[in-house]
Write a structure and sequence with these properties.
It contains 2 helices and no strands. By secondary structure, the protein is mainly α.
Length: 50
């Protein structure tokens, strides 16, 4: 089962990827990484709410 730790780890990985994509000028991948960050952020909020 997925836990808060898993979501946090995945969020941090997506954040790192987003920073790397922005640094390299890969805008499409950057936006995809931001969407992934948003997904994990929502999941973390849902876990905390329950």
């Amino acid at each position: 089962m997925l836990t808060m730790r898993n979501f946090t780890t995945q969020y941090e990985i997506a954040k790192h990827n987003a920073n790397e994509f922005m640094r390299k000028g890969q805008i499409t991948q950057y936006f995809e990484a931001l969407l992934e960050m948003n997904k994990y952020k929502r999941l973390m909020v849902a876990v905390v709410a329950n």
